[in-house]
Design goal:
single chain; alpha+beta; D-amino Acid Aminotransferase, Chain A, domain 1; OB fold (Dihydrolipoamide Acetyltransferase, E2P); 3 domains; eight-stranded mixed beta sheet; 21 helices; about 40% helix; binds adenosine monophosphate
């Protein structure tokens, strides 16, 4: 098949942004492609040579590419540089340069000039592959020689697309789903076959492989499509709801809740002693975790298996879970080998998708769990994810608190219904996560001093509705307000408040207190309360660190809850304004880190 056929299709694709038109163009193309070439055509059309998980990437450096163009066109590199600056696109620049008639050489005059054969798809693909694979000493020269030879054989129009491909910039804007539509129409009798084709894609993450199966075996082949150990299955993702009540009602009143570990998700494929690890984004990350591979090799009792787990950093001294960012940081700082010895990872297994010839993805979760429990031999650093059968919102709330206290982000609640399949490649309601409102939620309590109170109403008439709490500022020796807090008190505690605080009541704001709020009652700073909140926020009413982070705002606490009194502490032992500021700053960093997390 000639490469120019592909180029015709690329040009048409570039002229439209409409998905249906793109599908039609692709169908026209696929119908012209010999069946054994379909996979290569699909990869090339995506600007790739292989599916992503293989990890062989195009992306030749611009400098080398410019030298190849100069060599192919017989011009100075400066000419290429100038043209690239003018056009802003290496493909167009090369096309323009190669369109200019060359000076007639003596060789041409004598009839001996190189007359290129028309370029085939195979020739382009093979050359690009050799370029991508060239490594080590002399690799740069090899790449330049290969590319310039290919350019000499290509028309200027072909050169445009070859150059965009080799630099990793062939951006035709075709979604995977459009390719799946086109495959269904071209090879499987119509768009109705799309769900089956999509499933094949979800089971293999390999569009070229799916395309070739469809082209060679038609719909029957797609129906029989099987999981291949070594090709990652597209991961199932969780939906999210804010409260235990909503989660349970969505899941029919019952679920298995599991700890949601803050680590890296891993899909592990094991075949005998060979282990491959894939990230959530389906990159091959086997070489990042030699220790995880070893654990899987030793403690997963099956010949051929695909399991999912969360890979977590553990503090070797205390056995506590550490945040994901810390694992990444350590591995960057010390290198994988050393970090692995100093800070080994632990694996928490949570699903199994395939075992010894059996595809489990369409089995309900309880059945998959039975297989998982059989296959995993638990040991120190490889465990089944902590779980509990949950039948009420109170149980779920309690388990959630335990998960958070143990250093997790929250819990993932999993449907137990007969249709609770593994929804490869989909975010659905069979898994629902319940997370803290922010990853950066306050892990530590703070100790604050009540400097005033508001009268209670309704059920709280006769006692206080909320206390006004302050942090200590040693620089000015004053107490600066943070938050009102009315939650977390038991009924007895609440009833006891007026009596407990009575000795400290004064008729006006205490001179060592800095407050914008005007409570009903003022106190002498004396007692200390331990408080836990959701996060540190900015508030115009808080005077703690007023104006430091933002003009007109101080540091406050969202959803503060009373934990207990701290009679062992005096008011000057309370959390200081600077400590709060530190907590706020590290919270910001955590949020940023969370946003960058894959
Ligand atoms: P999210 O990334 O917020 O959509 O949450 C889903 C992620 O939670 C998964 O991709 C896993 O990396 C992670 N996770 C941690 N523990 C579990 C678990 N027990 N079951 C499923 N996912 C888990």
């Amino acid at each position: 098949m000639l490469y120019s056929v592909l180029v015709d299709a690329y040009e048409s694709l570039e002229r439209t942004t409409k998905r249906l038109e793109m599908t039609d163009i692709l169908v026209g193309l696929f119908r012209k492609v010999p069946t054994d070439l379909v996979d290569k055509v699909v990869y090339l059309t995506q600007g790739k040579l292989y599916p992503d998980f293989v990890g062989i990437e195009l992306g030749m450096a611009e400098k080398l590419v410019m030298r190849s163009i100069a060599e192919a066109a017989g011009v100075q590199i400066k000419v290429v540089e100038d043209e690239l600056k003018r056009m802003g696109d290496i493909g167009k620049a090369a096309e323009n340069i190669l369109s200019k008639p060359k000076a007639v050489s003596l060789l041409a005059f004598m009839g001996g000039e190189h007359k290129p054969e028309p370029l085939t798809v195979n020739k382009v693909y093979d050359t690009l592959e050799r370029i991508a694979r060239a490594s080590g000493e002399g690799a740069q020269e090899t790449k330049i020689t290969l590319l310039s030879a290919l350019l000499k054989d290509s028309t200027p129009r072909e050169a445009r697309y070859i150059l965009r491909t080799v630099t990793g910039k062939l951006r035709l804007g075709i979604a995977d789903m459009t390719i799946l539509d086109a495959l269904a129409i071209s090879f499987c009798g119509g768009k109705e076959a799309r769900p089956l084709i999509e499933r094949a894609y979800n089971l293999s993450s390999d569009l070229g492989f799916v395309a070739k199966t469809a082209a060679m075996e038609g719909l029957e082949g797609i129906k029989k499509f099987k999981i291949t150990v070594g090709k990652p299955i597209r991961p199932m993702l969780a939906e999210r709801l804010p409260t235990p009540e909503e989660v349970l009602s969505k899941l029919g009143g019952k679920c298995i809740a599991e700890y949601k570990y803050d680590g890296e998700r891993i899909q592990a494929h094991k075949q005998g002693d060979r282990v491959l690890l894939f990230s959530r984004r389906l990159e091959n990350i086997t070489h990042h975790y030699p220790d995880a591979c070893e654990l899987l090799r030793n403690y997963i009792k099956a010949e051929e298996v695909i399991v999912e787990c969360e890979c977590v950093a553990i503090d070797p001294d205390t056995g506590e879970l550490r945040p994901f960012q810390e694992l990444m940081h350590r591995r960057r700082k010390y290198g994988i080998e050393d970090a692995m010895k100093m800070f080994p990872v632990s694996l928490f297994m949570f699903d199994i998708l395939y075992v010894d010839g059996i595809d489990l993805t369409l089995k309900p979760y309880p059945e998959r769990r039975e297989h998982l429990l059989k296959v995993v031999q638990e040991a120190d650093r490889i465990r089944i994810a902590e779980f509990r059968l949950i039948e009420s919102p109170e149980e779920l709330e309690k388990f959630f608190e335990e998960a958070v206290a143990d250093g997790c982000e929250g819990v993932v609640c999993k449907s137990l219904s007969p249709n609770s399949i593994y929804q490869a490649g989909a975010r659905g309601w069979l898994w629902i996560k319940l997370k803290r409102s922010y990853q950066a939620k306050m892990r530590d309590t703070v100790d604050l001093v009540p400097i005033g109170a508001f009268y209670g109403r309704g059920k709280r008439a006769g006692t206080y509705g909320a206390l006004l709490l302050a942090a200590y500022d040693p620089d000015t020796d004053t107490f600066k307000t943070v938050s009102k807090c009315g939650s977390g008190f038991s009924d007895e505690e609440l009833a006891r408040l007026p009596e407990l605080l009575k000795p400290y009541i004064i008729p006006h704001q205490h001179p060592r207190v800095d407050s914008r709020a005007k409570p009903d009652v003022w106190f002498v700073p004396a007692l200390v309360a331990e408080i836990l909140g959701d996060e540190i926020t900015l508030s115009p009413m808080a005077t703690a660190a007023m104006g430091v982070v933002r003009e007109g705002a101080g540091l406050s606490i969202r959803f503060p809850r009373f934990i207990r009194w701290r009679p062992d502490k005096g008011p000057e032992d309370a959390t200081t304004v600077n400590e709060l500021l530190e907590m706020y700053r590290s919270q910001l960093k955590k949020i940023e880190a969370e946003e960058q997390k894959p």
